[in-house]
Design brief:
Elements: H1 10-20, E1 24-25, E2 27-32, E3 38-43, E4 46-50, E5 55-61, H2 70-78, E6 80-85, H3 91-96, H4 107-110, E7 115-117, E8 124-126, E9 131-142, E10 150-162, E11 167-168, E12 171-172, H5 174-177, E13 180-182, E14 188-190
Antiparallel strand pairs: 1-13, 2-3, 2-6, 4-5, 5-10, 6-9, 7-8, 9-10, 11-12, 13-14
The structure holds flavin mononucleotide.
Flavin mononucleotide is lined by residues 26, 39, 41-45, 59-61, 69-71, 95, 98, 100, 182.
Length: 198
């Protein structure tokens, strides 16, 4: 199959992109709105953009009506957010936080998770996560105001929390971390089936 992307609808572009670019790590984005209400939502368009300075990238798509998702509004308003990583034992709770809740609903409470104050930024992170980053907004590159257009968020990582149980000399034990990734739709993968290339 060959596709000229200009001829494709958003839904088909989405299927091709998420079915091809996988597995994707999941940034569990913690933020606070202007009223101080905490928000938590997963974003798998996520990667490391720079090591030193440490910069991460996530992309937040516009909603079907073209408006911003709550995380993006909070990131722009507060200029900061956290990214917690998702281990297998938190997979179900993570999926609960993806539901379209109103902006005044605290997803930590909806998913039975514990919000904890960040150390260097005025935001919140997920206490159940084994790894969390504290991030300060660097820039947002928007690709349009229509449904499906992405908003690429680049952010400086100002602090990193790692559970002492999974780290030794800055090396994270990936088995103990037990991170998951997103495939397409409701399918996910673990990091348990690794192999070595010699
Ligand atoms: C595993 C997973 C990954 C997701 N990744 C993204 C993503 O990269 N970009 C995006 O716009 N939405 C993504 N979503 C959908 C958002 O999580 C969803 O729209 C959520 O309601 C947004 O919440 P918010 O409005 O509180 O930010 C993902 C959902 C799941 C379950």
């Amino acid at each position: 199959m060959f596709s000229d992307t200009k001829a494709l609808q958003t839904s088909d572009l989405y299927k091709l992109l998420i079915g091809s670019v996988l597995p994707r790590p999941i940034a569990w984005v913690g933020s606070k709105n202007n009223q101080g209400i905490a928000n938590l939502a997963p974003y798998s368009f996520f990667t490391v953009a720079s090591i030193n300075p440490p910069v991460i990238a996530i992309s937040v798509a516009n909603k079907d009506d073209g408006s911003n998702k709550d995380s993006l509004n909070n990131i722009i308003d507060s200029q900061c957010f956290s990214v917690s990583m998702v281990s297998h034992k938190n997979a179900k709770a993570m999926s609960v936080t993806a539901d379209l809740f109103d902006a005044d609903v605290n997803e930590f409470e909806m998913a039975g998770l514990t919000e904890i104050a960040c150390s260097k930024i005025n935001s919140v992170r997920c206490a159940e996560a084994k790894v969390s980053f504290e991030c300060v907004l660097n820039e947002v590159k928007s690709y349009g105001e229509h449904a499906g257009a992405g908003n690429l968020v680049l952010a400086d990582v100002v602090a990193i929390h790692v559970d002492d149980e999974i780290i030794d000399d800055f090396k994270i034990d990936t088995n103990k971390f037990d991170a998951i990734g997103r495939l397409a739709g409701a399918n996910y993968t673990t990091t348990r089936d690794s192999f070595l290339i010699e």
